[in-house]
Structure formats: C-alpha cells, structure tokens
Amino acid sequence: MRKDATIVSSLFLAAALILPAVNSWTAEGHPSHKPPPDAVQEVQSQREVARTRPEQQKNQHDNSPVFKESNAELASQAFKNQPDEGRHLGFEFYRDPLNAKKPFTTFEEIYQKDVAAKPKVAEIHQRLLEMRYDLRPRLSPDVKMTRGKPIAVGPTARLPQGTTWEKLSAMSPVQIRSANLFPYPPLPHPNNANGGQVFPRMQIDMFPRLQRFDIDFDLPEAFLPEFPPAMFLQNRPELGDVSRGEVVSINNFYRLFKDILTPVQLNGLQFLLTPLPQEEFNPTDDRKTAQPVLGVACLDCHINGHTTGQFHQSPDFRPWERRFRLDTVSLRGMFNQQIHGSKRSLRSVEDFTEFEFRTAYFNGDPIHAMKKGFPIIDRIHVSHMAQMQNMFDFPPAPKLDPSGRLDRRLATQQEIAGEEIFNGKGRCASCHPAPFYLDHMMHDLQLERFTREPGDGPIKTFTLRGIKESPPYMHDGRCFTLEDTVKFFDLVLGLRLNQQEQDNLVAFLRVL
C-alpha cells in the first residue's frame, strides 16, 4: 500500500516548557537559538499521517474539478439567457482575498506574487532608511535598560550636505518645508498596500508563527526595546522585574504568576495571551502567513506588558493611503491613563480592549474582523483583561521623589539642568507634567508646516515614564533615539535649544 501522507491539524494544546538552547553562532556574532516549545504553535502544527486505510485514499471524485465554483451546475437552464448566465462574476467578500485585484483570485496567486515582490519591496525601503538615517548604532557605554541592553544614542537623522542643525533651527517652518529639509518626515510602513502588523526578527526567532511571507521588520535591533523586556506590577512593587528573563506566554504564565496575581487577574492574563484570528494572522485567505494560523494575542504585540517596537497602521484614516505607520506602545502605567488610542480617545481600557477585538486589531473595520473570525468576548472577560492591563507598572525611577520630581540629592548637575529645561525653556512639562509625565489630552503638532505630507491632527500625549526603554519614538517610530526626539521638538516648537541644553534634557529624560 502507498505510504502517501496527508496533513492533519493537531487538536490539543501540548504542555511545554521554555528551554531555549544555544545551537550555534550567526555570522554577525550573535547566538543562534532554537525556538522554545510554543503551545500556540503546537496546537496549529500540521503533521503527516500515513495513508494506511482505504478510506484515506484519494479517488477520482476527490481530485475532480467538480468542486470549483465555475463548474457548478446552473439551478435553472433559463439562466443561460440572462446576463452573465446568472453567475455572480464580481467580487465576493467571503470568497476573494482582501485587496485582490480581480474576482476568484486564489491564496496561492497572492502568495506567489508577494513572495516574488518581497526582495524589491525590502530594497526600496532599505534605500529610504539609509537615505534618511545613519543605521550604524552608537551604544551608550553606561546607560542601559532594566535587563542590561545598552540604549542607542544619536541623533541618527542624516542632514543634506551643507545643512547643519544650527541652520535648520534658524529657519522658519515655511523655509524648511519649501526646501524639503525637515529631517524627521513620516516614517512609512514598508508595504503600505498590504499593511498590517510586523514583528521584529528577535521575536520571530522565538515564535516562528509570527513570520510573514510578504515583508520583514525594517529597523536594526539596536534601536528597539529589550527582548524580553522587564515586567513590573503595581500590586507587587517590591518584586521588581517579575518576568525573570522569560517571555510571558500561554506556556508559562500560570507558573510565573499563580502566587502573585489574583484569580481575576490570572484569567485576564490568560485571555491577553490567547491568540484570536485577526489581521494578517488568521485561518482565511486574508492572511500573510504561509499556513493558516490561530491568530495573534494582545501580548504578542505588548510583550510582557511592554513593546518590542512592532508596528502597524493607524486604523483611524481612510482612504487606505492616508493611514500612517503606528508603533506599538507600552502598556506600562495603563492604570493611570484616562484616554486610550492615539486618535480615538476611548475613555476606558475596557472599551479599548473590546473595540480592538471587534474591529480587526487596529484596522477600524468590523467587516474584516467578521471574515477572519469575529471574536465576541463577554464583558466579564473584557473586564478581567482590563484589570490585568491596569497592573502593569513603570520601571523604578530611583532619582525621582514621590511627586515625580527629581531628587536633587541623588541627581547629577546635568540632570538637574535638564529638569529645568524640561519645565522651562523646553516647554515639555506643558504636555508631560509630573508625576506621570502626561496630561491625558490630545495635541496637534501641525507637522504639515514642515513636511509635504498632510498633518496627522491631534494625537494623544504618551507618558515619558521609563521612556529610555521604549524606542523608537513618536507615533510612527520616526525618531530612533532620545537625541532624535529632542531635535525633533526643538524644530517643531521653535525652541532653539543649544547643544548643551539638548544634552542636559536628554540626561533628564533618561532618569524618568
């Protein structure tokens, strides 16, 4: 009997431990790791099973073209005299892939087209990055994130030949725009037509299910947060980093937190770690993964309640070409935020949590969500998820006093000078007041004054607590370092800070 194989899906979650093992070293000198067992991957893994029984064999009917839609028999012979012989030849939402160029497009056609185009897409975007930025990271010798990753220092923006920061600072917005000299124009999604969530290589190495076939992450790892990032809980501050160097997942959350979180919080964490069929990660033809997948989880993007720089597109603009790149923000300090979403200004984390599930994870589109697998989560579980999100805390800031101001007995002179700039000439505190360094409002920087792209309108203020651990900066990640960010605001707000004042301000930001 033939030993042909068929593909079947595993139906049960496998218990697995995270046991990363170093296999070899890459050409860049980094350790190469085998991905640890992943329960989510296990449940969707495909396995070959030998065809040993007669009923498993493919027969002539199984392989016939009768199942194709175009070969379906007419319900009435009278249709032959009607327009298009009674057939529906246009687009069908349930049948055709989203953004298909013609009806009856198959997933295989989309896959082959995107795979073939991928090198060219990457090449074009890489040229843009190299034109705008110096991508060779310079690392601080003494400033590190919680778990030891050194921060990148800047600025990284490339200025046109003959242009200096001093000359730019002296120019008006109209002059900068007309000469196209603004060093921080919007950072685009590398493939805006396809769009969607893109994960960095360091995360895909651990969770291969997050690999897309059409696009790869674009920014060097040195400009991203730690992976895995530290995790802090406001209900147990004495524990410090509770991640213990692990990526919190469906595999290990109970082991790590059963003695730390309440049953309600544990249940919320479990749902935050459960993948749902959304975006480019789903079981339909609207996916960007080679094989159908269960989906993505909230904490796939907000790793350990933080971020690793994943990006997407803002859901709040149409037509499609008006959507801008959207950097994943940290959930740290969620308990004290009064509005949620960069544009939507949702007024509770419960509403935000439920809204994203129902509108296809940052697509603002419940129709797309329905096709990919419309998740309906009852309000009880939504509230549990929200409560867990409200447990995520900022990293300790030992140089700040209880009011969030700098304790001058512990600070350097440069940090003290930086706080004075922050509250004074720099005008930072007008939108980022202590102690949490945000004002729970939305502001319009009117960037159309400086660039040839339309402005973004009002965008919510984001907290600056723990800011050194959340690069890149701005809503689209266009500023790779804190130095870039200070340069950006110096131009946009017309501050005209000298270099020493900018350095002082960066020193203060690093201690928040």
From TrEMBL:
Asked if the record carries the keyword Iron, the reply is yes
Known Gene3D superfamilies for this protein?
Answer: Cytochrome c-like domain
- According to the entry, every stretch annotated as the Cytochrome c domain falls at 413-512
Keyword annotations for this protein? Heme, Iron, Metal-binding, Signal
Show which residues constitute the signal peptide.
1-26
Residues folding into a coiled coil are none
Q: Where is the composition biased (Basic and acidic residues)?
A: 48-61
* Region named Disordered: 27-66
Gene Ontology molecular function, alphabetical = cytochrome-c peroxidase activity; electron transfer activity; heme binding; metal ion binding
Top-level taxon of origin: Bacteria
What name does the UniProt record give this protein? Cytochrome b6
The organism's taxonomic lineage, starting at the top: Bacteria, Pseudomonadati, Thermodesulfobacteriota, Desulfuromonadia, Geobacterales
